[in-house]
Each structure stands twice: as structure tokens, then as C-alpha cells.
Design a protein that fits this description.
By secondary structure, this protein is an alpha/beta fold. The chain contains nine helices and 14 strands. The strands form two sheets. The chain has a seven-stranded mixed sheet, with helices on both faces. Strand 5, helix 3 (about 75-85) and strand 6 (about 90-95) form a beta-alpha-beta unit.
Length: about 290
């Protein structure tokens, strides 16, 4: 078992005829992901990497039975691509695109919720259930199948912690990069809830960063609802207030959203918080030695 994607996931790539879409579609296919179609308006009937391209998502779904989509569409058109996927009955939508205007993100967030789909991102590295399916841009060679779930706002830190876990012989059930924008489709609590219900997941790593209150809310959920152990990491201990650090959501404003406050909240909820990505992996290894 895994969460959100598995060996039965049948995905389309929106924007497959662009450079990024084609490049990552090929990588996902080599990993074993079932890419059943591409979608680019105006290029229906053509073929990329041996898969048929359709003009619309609805057409692709009707002809292939696709239940997931990964989006490599420029920022100006990405929200429309997400909403088209939701309106066409796609269950899992992964939006890699960064730089989407906030008002567009708001519109697509609510449309996806109304449709009952799961949106990962935008501005994210995607999702992987090692050995089963990968939708996104992750370096697949560093992951291995196992029982640790990872949920993270940071792509690079996700990779580093997964790599450290794999080096210690600890595999992952599913790894989810939820994205670093202020408005994202699926948050920490929703993913933690899925890991709590997933029989394959025995422990969870939460990777947060400065800005917002999502980690504090997650800490409250962990304290009240989770039976599985959680190990944490918060990036940005030395970040200056008022300066955005990389992600659109990574900014300390009005003294809210500091790394210290997030670490305090997690520790109060019983989460062990590592000071480095390597220490996080060692804390997880310690859990499995108990």
C-alpha cells in the first residue's frame, strides 16, 4: 500500500510537447510510471515518446481511463490546466509549475476541492511511491521502497533526507513534496492523516520551513490524532525577519512563523526534531531499533 499514487496510477502529462514535459515524461516512464497520454491544446493526434497527444484532458480520459495528471504548463496557463483536469474527473493532479499568480491559485484551489480531486503543489517536486509510481521531477535513484512516509515543503531537503534514509537502509512508503507557495492544494495535516491510515507506513518525517502556521497546525494534529511516530526538520533557523527565503511562503512576518516557534510546537507534540538532514535520518533509524 501507499498513499495517493501506486502501481495502478494511470497518468497523463499536460504540456508533454514542451521541453520540460517531454524530458520528465521520459524519466517517469523509465521509472515505470504508466504514462498513458499527453495533452497539449492544438497538437491532438500527434505522438510523443510513443504516447498519443490529445487536445483536451476530457478527451484523454475518455480514451485512456487516466486517473492522474502531472502538469508542466507555463505559469500563465497552469491554473486553467489544473481546473481542466479537475473538471474532467482526474483524481490526482500534480502541478510542478512555479510562479502561478496568487489569484489563479485561489481559483484552482477551490475548483479542485469542489471536484473532490487531490492537488499536489503547485511549485512542488511531485510525489513518489518508490517502486510503484512517480509523478514529478524527483531524482528517483535515491529512493527505495519501505515504510517511512515523508511530507515536505522543500524539494532539495526532501531529496537529502530520503537519500540519508536510503543510505541507512531505510526505505520510504510515499514521499510527497507539497510545495512552497502560500496557497497549496494539499497541506501537512491532510498528508499526515493519509499516512496515519496507511498500513504500510510505520513512521513519518515532516520537513517544514519558516513562514505561515502550517507546521504549528500540523503539530496540533500530531499531538491529538496520530499514533505513529513523527520526526521533524525545520529549515530557516538563521533566516532574517521580513526577507523571503526561496519559497513564496517562506517569510517571517510580524514575528509569526519562525523556525523556533515551529520547533517548539513540534517538540511539544512529541516530535523529535533533527538539527540537520542527517540527524533526521539517524532519529528515524533509532525509532526502528527500539
Amino acid at each position: 500500500m501507499a498513499i495517493i499514487v501506486n502501481e495502478n496510477t494511470r497518468a497523463i502529462v499536460q504540456g508533454i510537447t514542451g521541453y520540460q514535459g517531454k524530458f520528465h515524461a521520459e524519466r517517469m516512464m523509465k521509472y515505470g510510471t504508466k504514462i498513458v497520454a499527453g495533452v497539449t491544446p492544438g497538437k491532438g493526434g500527434s505522438e510523443v515518446l510513443g504516447v498519443k497527444v490529445y487536445d483536451s484532458v476530457r478527451e484523454a480520459v475518455e480514451n485512456t481511463g487516466a486517473n492522474a495528471s502531472v502538469i508542466f504548463v507555463p505559469a500563465a496557463f497552469a491554473a486553467d490546466a489544473v481546473m481542466e483536469a479537475a473538471d474532467s474527473g482526474i483524481e490526482v493532479i500534480v502541478c510542478i509549475t512555479e510562479g502561478i499568480p496568487v489569484h489563479d491559485e485561489l481559483k484552482m484551489y477551490w475548483r479542485v476541492k469542489e471536484a473532490g480531486s487531490v492537488l499536489i503543489g503547485p511549485n512542488c517536486p511531485g510525489i513518489i511511491s518508490p517502486g510503484k509510481s512517480h509523478l514529478g521531477i524527483m531524482p528517483t535513484q535515491i529512493f527505495k521502497p519501505g515504510s517511512v512516509g515523508i511530507v515536505s515543503r522543500s524539494g532539495t531537503l526532501t531529496y537529502q533526507i530520503a537519500y540519508n534514509l536510503s543510505k541507512l537502509g531505510i526505505g520510504q512508503s510515499t514521499v510527497v513534496g507539497i510545495g512552497g507557495d502560500r496557497i497549496i492544494g494539499t497541506d501537512f495535516v491532510e498528508i499526515l492523516s493519509m499516512f496515519e491510515e496507511d498500513a504500510e507506513t510505520e513512521a513519518v518525517v515532516l520537513v517544514g520551513e519558516i513562514g505561515g502556521r502550517d507546521e504549528e497546525v500540523a503539530a496540533e494534529f500530531i499531538r491529538e490524532e496520530m499514533s505513529k511516530p513523527v520526526v521533524g526538520y525545520i529549515a530557516g533557523l538563521t533566516a532574517p525577519p521580513g526577507k523571503r527565503m526561496g519559497h513564496a511562503g517562506a517569510i517571517i512576518e510580524g514575528g509569526v512563523g519562525t523556525a523556533e516557534s515551529k520547533i517548539r510546537a513540534l517538540e511539544k507534540a512529541g516530535v523529535e526534531v533533527g538539527k540537520t538532514p542527517m540527524e533526521v535520518a539517524e532519529l528515524v533509524a533509532k525509532l526502528f531499533r527500539k
